[in-house]
């Protein structure tokens, strides 16, 4: 391949990924010479190729521009820029359906009761009621013994925290919300890999932030060169990311990608808000380190927050989450004080008592084995029932299955609901519509004939359903 063909391919990738938008001016021939360190002849020949392919057009006295209706010329997942985000009632829709006893709960990422240590947790509540001061306001930062326990547990994931580095929150969603609020102002831009947890869109809308949606790509997870170009160009204030087993598609970023991304965040002074909800639910031999553990901390460095909770492993209703930060906890504590005096002390004590008296590691190990086994069963049934028409990603942890159908999964959902099956259509997990033929299933269901029949029905319906 010649130099100008390589240059044309590189620029084409930039246009396809959304780095240059419809009708936007691209660098001039002289500018691209400096940017790509090439000759004027190479630049001119590369632009000629792009013009012939209908990707760009020259305007006299103005330069080169991306053509209008460019999406007709390109395919694949693209970066999208949103000046405003208008979130609908996505979470409410999922929760309403998952609470419907007539529907199998494939939709929400919530484990069935059998997977939760409820009897042991009840014992923890009984002990909590005997605490002398359980009826009083607790510390705003959270119950000290629980924070100390979480700090000790943090060492196993490669990012050691102290009790003073931890703030208890009302679930992981609040952790993400106040962390983001602490490092942004209305009108700021943030970077958000997608598909992602639906609750983030409500947070972004409430905080009046602009959004760059960058897609996870199947082969690499997150394209680092693409990410770097976006960060350099748009200067986002923060990134929200799940580096370990992203919900909904289960992506696990490689160690190299985490290190390269950490380098970008530090050099560009971009705050990190990391959701590590699923990090403990790895299916392999070792727990992957969180992205934040690859950051170096200094007074001049950007804020970095690790957010998590016990909602997916102990019980969703207890609403015990936390934020861990070595350099910015005072900022989020100040925001937390504006909304509450303290947390629910008896619940914090109950969780601490459970962690103190029972083997949380043994419980997690049981979950990992079951969810990994369920995935293999789910995948086999779906692919056989759909005659191979469903493409299913292969996660390495968590408890969700992410698949790609041949048609709009919102329309597919209408058909499956008639069979008593609810799942989460891909459109829920992005601001743009590029996930509309994808879907997510909850793997944390007890295996039974009813589940098997539902998966077979889902596969068969997806095979015959057309756009």
Automatic annotation (TrEMBL):
Classification via Pfam families: Aminotran_1_2, GntR
GO MF annotations in UniProt: DNA binding; DNA-binding transcription factor activity; pyridoxal phosphate binding; transaminase activity
Family affiliation: In the C-terminal section; belongs to the class-I pyridoxal-phosphate-dependent aminotransferase family.
Protein name per UniProt: PLP-dependent aminotransferase family protein
Organism: Leptospira ilyithenensis
Gene3D superfamilies: Aspartate Aminotransferase, domain 1 (3.90.1150.10), Type I PLP-dependent aspartate aminotransferase-like (Major domain) (3.40.640.10), Winged helix-like DNA-binding domain superfamily/Winged helix DNA-binding domain (1.10.10.10)
Keywords linked to the UniProt accession: Aminotransferase, DNA-binding, Pyridoxal phosphate, Transcription, Transcription regulation, Transferase
Residue ranges constituting the HTH gntR-type domain according to the UniProt record: 1-69
PROSITE patterns reported for this sequence: HTH_GNTR
InterPro entries, A to Z: Aminotransferase_I/II_large, HTH_trans_reg/aminotransferase, PyrdxlP-dep_Trfase, PyrdxlP-dep_Trfase_major, PyrdxlP-dep_Trfase_small, Tscrpt_reg_HTH_GntR, WH-like_DNA-bd_sf, WH_DNA-bd_sf
